[in-house]
């Protein structure tokens, strides 16, 4: 009897596993089609200067609105694309769309943009040919000095000569900044910050979320700000949702803030209007001086 039961359980897990695998394959094939048909889009979320509330950058976030399934969120398809390798095409497509959007915004502004645009780069496989393709697009874009790249800590931990070389190659293409995303959650060996010539640290939103009732999260935020000062890196807090978050991050001296409190990610068409209105309204006292 017990044996039968055990077998049933194994079958249950096997079929569950099989189903998950099939679902991933299905999603991956669908994503491939969406890429081929240029049906992905990018939304942009502002990062504001905590001294005046003005946007200093926008983060580009990929969006996939499927005709049958509606919005498929990044947390569903990015891991799938990372395991199949398709993420490289996603990142390249996002880079191209961002370059195109920047060009249009420059026309609307009648000159260079008063902000930079950050792109997320998957760290899964940073191979030489992929970096060659990325740097080629960046170099020929004419807007490299307005681009930032965000990479998560995990890649930096592959602290090999090869990855140091590749990261330096991307920076040499003329990008404005290299940021470490989700900082403070991973491994945080500090050595790589120097070797990779990092410019910016993004305090992970999990640390911001509980900052009002978790003293250790607050201490970590304070330590990251101190690290930024010591190494001359700028610091952003992401996931700022409430006035309480904002107040505490101000007290810790975080210079840049990003989160729903300021704006949700918006379509590219809305960016220029949003920036102009912010500038028209003049400086806001996000953090008391
Ligand atoms: P991330 O790079 O850390 O981006 C921040 C995520 O937090 C975004 O989710 C953003 O919409 C969300 N967010 C912003 N403010 C708040 C807030 O106040 N509260 C909360 N709860 N969330 C907030 P999104 O767009 O769903 O992206 C999730 C992740 O997917 C990103 O995390 C990034 O790792 C990845 N991703 C997004 N676009 C791309 C892309 O083009 N390429 C790659 N490789 N990864 C991407
Ligand atoms: Mg990011
Ligand atoms: Mg993050
Ligand atoms: Mg668009």
TrEMBL record:
The chain holds residues 345 to 633 of 633 of the full protein. This is Diguanylate cyclase (GGDEF) domain-containing protein. Residues 24-279 form the EAL domain.
